[in-house]
Specification:
The chain has 611 residues and is mainly beta. The protein is built from five helices and 46 strands. Strands 1, 2, 3, 4, 5, 6, 7 and 46 form an eight-stranded mixed sheet that branches. Strands 36, 38, 39, 41, 43 and 44 form a six-stranded mixed sheet that branches. A five-stranded antiparallel sheet has the order 16-20-19-18-17, with no helix packed on it.
Length: 611
Amino acid sequence: MSARVRAPELRGRGWLNTGGRAVTLADLRGKIVLLDFWTFCCINCLHVLDELRPLEEKYGDVLVVIGVHSPKFEHEKDPDALAAAVERYGVHHPVLDDPEMDMWQQYAAKAWPTLSVVDPEGYVVATMAGEGHAEGLARLVDDLIATHEAKGTLHRGEGPYVPPAEPETALRFPGKAVPLDGGNLLVSDSARHSLVELAPDAETVVRRIGTGTRGRTDGPAAGATFAEPQGLCLLPPHVAEVAGYDLVVADTVNHLLRGVRLETGEVVTVAGTGRQWRSTVDDHAHDARSVDLSSPWDVAWYDDRVVVAMAGIHQLWWFDPIKRTAGMYAGTTVEALRDGPLPDVWMAQPSGLAVSADGARLWIADSETSAIRWVEAGEMHTAVGQGLFDFGHVDGPADQALLQHPLGVCALPDGSVLVADTYNGAVRRFDPETGQVGTVADGLAEPSDLVLTTDGEVLVVESAAHRLTRLAPGALTAAGANTVQGPRHRLERKPTDVTAGELTLDVIFTPAPGQKLDETYGPSTRLVVSASPPELLVEGAGTTTDLSRRLVVSGDVTQGVLQVTAQAATCDADVEHAACHLTRQDWGVPVRVVTGGATRLPLVLRGLDES
């Protein structure tokens, strides 16, 4: 039996959602504490926030969730940006600001997100990485309740959460916008879970579609509900007439596409089940209402269908409103940057889409690689961006320029592209003719989208300022652009030292309590391995059904990243009408090839490591 480990004390720069009070482990004694190590750029972390909501509600008198914000991007270290994110994503528990990642190191976190469970006596009893742990957590909490009620060490009652004051603004963290016929604008009011129609002045509210509360109810404008909606796409009139609705909405947190009849504001679900996608990659067309989606973030009409930026699984999907079918369009689900034929590309949280004036190119804001990319003639290309861990604010030649987590793009009639460079608080412009990147506006509060109006003006969805802002006249001319030589950043993750030659990859999977591996529909496990650069692996890339794999690492490549995706199918054991489950995890493992390095690489799929 391993020694019990005391939870390290909670220390950081400050606290949110506590009324200004610092929280210590002594304050939490007698409660079950769940520490959620997250960063607000990370889609997997956002998934976990939503997975935890039912647990917080069910166990509110015994469970205290503490968000520990350990940032990736420079912008995420800004305390004001963190406070905005906590409100934006409806975080209803205390959050500790950990800008130097001290708590991250104290609790030995190695990936975003990581969850650590502390028992009522102050000992760490479990750690898990990734998402999809809600069911296992519920069973663990039930066990801890039973154990500590019997010991007399469980104390029921209120936790330290103090809700902040409700703000008074017309919009709250708007996400995306589209111009309507007649000059009005439709905006996804993400933090208020609704759509808002604005007059041409971009300020006067004409109507609201949705109640403003989180939900997934179809129906009339006054009764429908959304959950953090983002992208909006107007259908061509002939398609809208057949489909029966005019607008497609990326209902992000619901994992749905919704259709809206603009005349009445009626809302209908058109794609998705409401369950998050955790399946296998295929190239089939599916009934749109029966397929699972994963955090659709933007939508655009391209290639005679709606293309969906599926941020949650690093892909593009398509949706046909007439045939009512949907399927995968581009990407393998590997989170990285690789160009090529659409089925083979790698992306990382695509979050913004725009179509060129001639309809030939689909532009993409690939946020986690801080990249701008485009699709044309069945292939994807990168215009600006170098990878997952390189970002900054640098203008000039596109192959040297840097962005920081862009969320929106806007194609201009002259062929150039505007970029909502979100974490730099800027609007950037890429000109394919010259290959140059320039800054046309800065000092903005997390711009998340750009809209070209019918009269040629450009509006910026200034999300963290809760408004739409017009770009100054002349900003888009060559004379109006600046050249910025700002900082370059590279996030360095400590690599794993491996030896050249044979390396055994072992993915360790333990079914959650009460579950067993399920081979009803074929092999219960699947493992996909690739490398960046590809030359890193001499042997071992590809897909198998065994969670252990012999790899051969090249001695000619000094470092790289192993991309690993593993999944396991389980079902409830020894119960009638057993439910089925699919556990899936993606890793990007930095490795350095050295003499005397490791010959075995273990990864934990479920991640439920009980101490």
